[in-house]
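Question (not urgent): is this output format expected?
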Amino acid sequence: MFDENPANNPTQVWEVGGRDVDFDARALLRKLDATGLGIIRYLIDHPDRTCPVQDLAAAVDRPVTEVEDAVAWINTLAEALGYQNLVVRAASGVHLPAAAVEVARQGLIDAQR
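Got this back:
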């Protein structure tokens, strides 16, 4: 049986040129509050770097728990759209996968139109 709900199997990757990626990135980013958008902006400005959550919280001027909740929300939205996590967690912090940086950058531009 074919399951049409992409959240049941979030396998799509955030990469330029992917099917519906631009539309989905814009939709996801429009759902974020100031904290979530600040996190995405910061991670775009620091590509190829895992950022400690404490440093990220200081950069967006929010408590660590709020940043952790925002990262969880971002990834919940990504999963609901059928994608792998947009913000990847590691033992040392969080980062945007290299392929996702340009998608997120363009998504921010499009979401603000």
